[in-house]
Write a structure and sequence with these properties.
Layout lengths: L3 E2 L1 H14 L4 E9 L3 E9 L7 E5 L2 E5 L1 H7 L3 E7 L2 E7 L5 E2 L6 E2 L1
Parallel strand pairs: 1-6, 2-5
Antiparallel strand pairs: 2-3, 4-5, 6-7, 8-9
Length: 107
């Protein structure tokens, strides 16, 4: 089981954590929502819980709870710029379908 960041994503996360001035890494997860069932959560992590899974990619710690890892195993987080838009993109090999707007998915 593994979660990874591209070099671009790791650099961006490190920049955000540096500007924020605190945090141990990036917390990823899923929540139930949307028309397809699941949506991604992405937030700063100030602590690591005893049951969390910890991965490190390009020097950035990625923290995920065991329940979310079942849906996200093998996922790579990228950071992309397209025209005036920029943001993180989840490349999840487990996704079977997603809604038209791209906000939710199912596995």
């Amino acid at each position: 089981m593994a979660i990874s960041l591209t070099e671009r994503a790791a650099k961006r996360v490190a920049e955000f954590l540096g500007k924020r001035g605190k945090g141990v890494g990036l917390r990823l997860g899923v929540r139930t929502t949307g028309c397809s069932g699941l949506a991604y959560k992405l937030e700063y992590a100030d602590t690591i819980n005893p049951d969390d899974q910890l991965f490190e990619s390009h020097g950035v710690k990625v923290i995920i709870d065991p329940k979310s890892l079942a849906y996200m195993d093998g996922t790579e987080l990228d950071f992309a710029r397209e025209g005036l838009n920029e943001g993180f993109k989840f490349n999840n090999p487990n996704v079977k379908d997603q809604c038209g707007c791209g906000e939710s998915f199912n596995v």
